[in-house]
Amino acid sequence: MTINKRVPFFHTLRLCLSAVLAITMASPAAHAEDLVLVAADSRPTAYIVDGKPTGILVDVVTEAFRRSGHSVKIQLMPWARCLAEVRDGNVDGIFSVFRLPEREAFLAYTDNPVITQVEVFFIHADSDIRLTGNLADLSHLRAGIIRDTSYGPDIDKLVKNGTWQNITYTSSVDSLVAMLAAKRIDFAPSYRAVFLDAAKQAGTVGKIKELSPAVKSIPSYLAFNKKREYTKISAEFDKALASMKKDKSFDAIYAKYLN
Fold this sequence. Notes:
Layout: H1 6-26, E1 35-40, E2 47-49, E3 52-54, H2 56-67, E4 72-77, H3 79-87, E5 93-97, H4 101-104, E6 107-109, E7 115-124, E8 143-146, H5 153-160, E9 167-170, H6 173-181, E10 187-191, H7 192-202, E11 208-210, E12 216-225, H8 231-246, H9 249-258
Helix pairs in contact: 2-8, 6-7
């Protein structure tokens, strides 16, 4: 009787190949999954049209990741929830976000900003409020701000140390615009393009006005959570974003929404 010694060999080989295949399929590097990113729901930077995210930052971020060979899924939600989701590691990243010491603990920032936010104060059209150069002089007035939003170190300090004592918190720029138009607050620090677009959508542009000069221009970034390793992806994103700025496609996206 002849014994087929190849049977055990091929059986063993089959088991080894199956194990390798199982490990490969379970490995994140073996198949390209969409990166899941979150952003605040606000026009003209990130908002929904026909069930899909669109806007300045949505287009910029999507194109930069396309150039770097990655696909993304973008979820829009209130800003406080955006921060919570990325802090807990439920999503890969967030945009756009200021560099703040307290956020460095859970965010890994890209090097190149995706937008520079022009921060201004808005008041009711009938108001005679003036900026004196000292933001603490507004302490007796009713301020409106979006919950968990940074307005830069100067304003953040006034809020945290209680200098601005009469603050109404809200979850979105739309409700902030509505409160100002209804005179429920006296002023609101905000980002010019976002606030004006919200007022335009609400039909209340004639009820608000912008104080001059602008308070500050602040660079804002895409950032990843620190629960996983994104160093390579972050570098690829920065390289792609730089190429967009060089070939003017970055400027073209802004012009599409702001002109």
